[in-house]
Amino acid sequence: MRWTTGSWCGGVARPGRGGPPGGTAGVDEPRDRGTATVELAIAMVGIVLVMTAVLTVAGVGVARLDVEDAARAGTREAITGASDTEIVAAATRAAGDGARVRIERQDGWVSVQVERPVVGRWGTWTVEGRRTGRIEPLVGG
Taking 50 as the threshold, does the pLDDT of residue 141 lie above it? Predict the structure, then answer.
């Protein structure tokens, strides 16, 4: 780096490309041509990678909410005395295609667990939701 001085730069030594006053100082040299384009291209790759990661995480989060809601719907059916087929149908309807539903009953309680694979740009994740509820006694029956 050359230091330039003179009246054209306020009489103070400042870093610069040098050159005569009113000359080519500040004009890009041939080796600097295209550097802004390269820097922009590199930055764009980074931005695209970050956006892809954000969208993937958001997709997994939405799928997680879906399976939690599906487990809740299945548990709601189960505590009212519905059959396993009705419970699975309710949970699958809420979770979407590819969901697996598991029902466990024990000591007057029922648990419904729903799992669903989520296919993303960088792999496949399995999200799951689980809800437990007390089985309602039959009233008037």
Answer: no
